[in-house]
Amino acid sequence: MTPVLKAQALGKKYGRRWALRDCTIDIPAGHVVGLVGPNGAGKTTLLKLATGQLEPSAGDITVLGARPGRTSAQLARVGFVAQDTPLYAGLSVTDHLRLGARLNPRWDDGMARERLARLGLVLGQRAGRLSGGQRAQLALTLGLAKRPELLILDEPVASLDPLARREFLQGLMEATAERAFSVVLSSHLVSDLERVCDFLIVLVDSRVQIAMETDKLLAGHHRLTGPRRDPDRLPADQHVVSQRHTDRQSTYVIRTDGLILDPAWTVTQLSLEDLVLAYMEKRIAENRPVALEAQR
Amino acid sequence: MIWLTWRQFRASAALTAAALAALTAVLALTGPGLSSQYAAGIADCVADDTCDRFFDVFFDHNQLAFLAVSLVVLALPALIGLFWGAPLITRELETGTHLLVWSQSVTRVRWLTIKLGLIGLTAMTAACLCGLVVTWWSGPLDKSAVVDLAQMAPLVFGARGIVPVGYAAFAVVLGVTVGMLVRRTLPAMALTLAAFVVIQLAMPLLVRPHLMPPVTGTFELGHANIGGISLPADGAGIQISTEPAVPGHPGAWVLSSDLVDASGRTIGGNGQETTIPVSSTSGPCAPQGGPPNEDPCWAEINQLGYRQRASYQPLERFWPFQWIETGIYAALALGLTGLCFWLIRRRVS
């Protein structure tokens, strides 16, 4: 199966500053993929490169097996809901539907109208008058009705209140249940992604820390708490993600496929959020400090 | 894509169309009257050879309207560049809507092509219409205008014929290009206006005089090229100065007009008052009793070898100049269009 997104040593430079550097990533098809990482990790840049809004400064990227955004045929296969869900403030909801119908070959007008009616959007209303949640829903509807093979959403819920956020993600989930298409969704809030994603990618500082199905991710990671012990005295199949030590106690987050047999450890399950934070910390410990923004 | 571009643009297009329709209506109503007034005046004045006076009165009477409509044609391209060109891309960039439209199944190149094409063609049509209507309306006035406001004069040339089309096309693309480079609407508008004004001043001052090599010639002095004779009180000669006009070529755009003496030496530059040693107390230039008659004085001055040496662009070159200048602006517009497409591929996102 063609990966929905494949990047090789991908980089994007603004002037002298690298927004994304040496990014190698492989996103399999058929998932709702959560792309998570602190601000400045390069998520938006990566997604803009994937939709062809930006041209790479280095490396290669293919989306659904082709160079992104070059032809209208390729554009038709990929939907994109940009950050803050931009819409034409002066145009009405109907105008936006017309825009979608005229600019997309596979436009599903019935679905779009049905969806908006269900959400209670007034067709004659100007987009500038809609609430934040309604705007996001309209933008999502435009992305869905285009019937893409891959829908990319860049921080779609970042500016929404908790209720609108839940409704938005609910709508997205229903849509993916109705029709099979891949979704890549970025966020810096793991709790948002937890509910909808079945595949998670942690991107810190342009680097993919881990990319895995969510259930495997949760099953393969453990928190070990016990008497103080050095990391090199752990079994070889236990890979340390993060570690904390006090004088007498050690706490590890480890990844392993095997069983944890040592009775000295108290083993606890990790939440997805703990896990993501552990990977972010790992990268920070390895490299220069990155501003943590996961706890907004 | 055409639908979307038109949907975004239709309000300002309608506003402009209404303003132009109003202007056209006013000119269409007053034009025939002006024209018949002119014809009647000419018929009267030819009989008693007082056409110079008729021209003065006729032009003076309509001067304000003449200047106003000419100004409209001159300002239209600048306004188009300012309000249509500059915000065309920057407004999308500022509100982020370029990300919405670029994620539909339309390539960026096609998006820009339609936007530039539609707005550019509308601008050119508006300027063409406005220019031709004003050219038609002011026909009688152009024939009777004073030298400074003749058809070839810098201020009027740009408000006649087809050059407004070239200006409008260039102004739109200039606005779009500046917008893509600056990426913010207000600074882009200010810069577009400044750049356009500079270019519109540089054109008649630096470029247009050389579109074709100017004609040079030496002319006898007379009513046509000398403003008048003044007789200083001390009687030590008379003062004359050349006018920016040449005899036999009414409506010519005079680039330089010097007064030269019998040896061909320049004794007075453009319009400079120059004293020549001709007696003002006796002889043909002395004030006579009865009605003033300057003709013997001119004869005397010319006999002494004083001449006007002028270089000028004759009125017959009006249309060749119009085509050349329109071509220059079209070429500039095309060059900037190329830059726009390069920017949309490489830089803007």
How would you characterize the overall build of this protein?
The complex is a heterodimer of chains A (296) and B (349). In chain A, 33% of the residues lie in helices and 28% in strands. Chain A has 296 residues and is an alpha/beta fold. Chain A folds into two domains: 5-215, P-loop containing nucleotide triphosphate hydrolases (Rossmann fold); 220-295, no CATH class. In chain A, the strands form three sheets. Chain A has a six-stranded mixed beta sheet with strand order 5-6-7-3-8-9, with helices on both faces. A four-stranded antiparallel beta sheet of chain A has the order 11-12-10-13. In chain A, strands 2-1-4 form a three-stranded antiparallel beta sheet, with helices on one face. The longest helix of chain A has 17 residues, at 162-178. Chain A starts with a strand and ends in a 10-residue tail after the last helix. In chain A, 43% of the residues are buried. By secondary structure, chain B is of the alpha+beta class. Chain B has two domains: 2-213 and 318-346, no CATH class; 222-305, no CATH class. Helices cover 63% and strands 10% of the residues of chain B. In chain B, strands 1-7-4-5 form a four-stranded antiparallel beta sheet, with no helix packed on it. A three-stranded antiparallel beta sheet of chain B has the order 2-3-6, with no helix packed on it. In chain B, helix 2 (51-95) runs antiparallel to helix 8 (185-207). The mean pLDDT of chain B is 89. Chain A binds chain B through residues 48, 51-55, 69-73, 75-76, 78-84, 86-91, 95, 98-100, 102-105, 139, 142-143, 146, and chain B through 1, 3-4, 7-8, 95-97, 99-108, 110, 345-346, 349.
| Average pLDDT, all residues of chain B | 89
Terminal CA distance of chain B? 19 Å
pLDDT < 50 runs, ≥5 residues of chain A: 288-296
Number of helices of chain B: 10
CATH hierarchy, class of the largest domain in chain A: Alpha Beta
Number of strands of chain A: 13
- The rough form of chain A would be described as elongated
For this structure, the quaternary state is heterodimer
Termini separation of chain A (Å)? 37 Å
Q: What is the strand arrangement across the widest sheet of chain A? A: 5-6-7-3-8-9
Instruction: Provide the structure class of chain B.
Output: alpha+beta
